[in-house]
Automatic annotation (TrEMBL):
Organism: Microcaecilia unicolor
Signal peptide region: 1-18
InterPro entries on file: Cys-rich_flank_reg_C, GPIb-IX-V_Complex, LRR_dom_sf, LRRNT
Gene Ontology biological process terms from the UniProt entry: blood coagulation; cell adhesion
UniProt domain LRRCT: residue ranges: 86-138
Annotated keywords: Blood coagulation, Cell adhesion, Disulfide bond, Hemostasis, Leucine-rich repeat, Membrane, Signal, Transmembrane, Transmembrane helix
Residues annotated as domain LRRNT: 20-56
Membrane topology term: Single-pass type I membrane protein
Matches recorded under PANTHER family: GLYCOPROTEIN IB BETA, PLATELET GLYCOPROTEIN IX
Localisation: Membrane
GO CC annotation: membrane
Protein name: Platelet glycoprotein IX
Membrane spanning residue stretches: 153-172
KW Aminoacyl-tRNA synthetase (keyword) present: no
């Protein structure tokens, strides 16, 4: 097998990956338009990685509490979505799901999604949650702020380490350069005191 053939096979497999049915679901091709992905009633605790060409998505009656940000963003051709009967935990992490659902104007929702926890939001439809109710995860700063802070601290620490390493490297290279300079002077000259050596050169 040539390298080119291998690459082609890899490419085909790679493209195929995006269309693979999640292990815990059953998939059916619908009129060659896309997949009907049925992951309902499987006690799922996490949203599975869904194929790009999903057009009907059934995730109802599972144990989903949250949907990681971005997890549905690649599903551009959805026509039907059912996420009902899941114990959604409606803290600030549910915001992605709430906003994503609001963006799905073209797809049909089969049932309303309701929060299970925390107690203050129990049985509230996701669509009716307001910003004030989505607290609970925020520290003294908004979450994005905290994330930025952590990222900044890591970056600054990294920069300091790099600076220290660089100054060490400069010091070592200076010492080396110095040694080389010393050894470059002919041994006989080294015996002559510096001051004399200088005057000797200038003549
Ligand atoms: C929900 O899922 C459970 C298994 O997790 C199943 O026993 C039950 O019948 C399902 N309920 C509905 C309404 O589909």
């Amino acid at each position: 097998m040539s390298i080119a053939e291998g690459l082609v096979i890899l490419l085909v497999l790679g493209v195929g990956q995006a269309e693979i049915c999640p292990l815990s679901c059953s998939c059916k091709l619908v009129e060659t338009k896309g997949l009907k992905v049925d992951c309902s009633s499987r006690r799922l605790k996490e949203v599975p990685v869904l194929p790009y060409n999903t057009i009907k998505l059934y995730l109802q009656n599972n144990s989903l509490t949250t949907a990681p940000a971005g997890i549905f963003d690649h599903l551009l051709n959805l026509e039907v979505v059912d996420l009902s009967n899941n114990p959604w935990h409606c803290d600030c992490h549910i915001l992605y799901l709430k906003l994503w659902m609001e963006d799905q104007t073209r797809s049909r929702h089969l049932a309303e999604d309701r929060c299970a926890t925390p107690a203050s939001a129990k049985m509230r439809p996701l669509s009716q949650l307001t910003g004030n109710e989505l607290t609970g995860c925020a520290g003294p700063w908004p979450i994005t702020c905290q994330e930025f802070l952590v990222r900044d601290i890591i970056l600054i620490a990294f920069a300091i380490v790099v600076l220290v390493l660089m100054s060490c490297a400069v010091r070592i290279s200076k010492r080396l350069a110095c040694c080389i300079a010393v050894t470059e002077i002919p041994p006989a000259m080294q015996l002559i005191p510096k001051s004399i050596r200088k005057s000797h050169k200038s003549q």
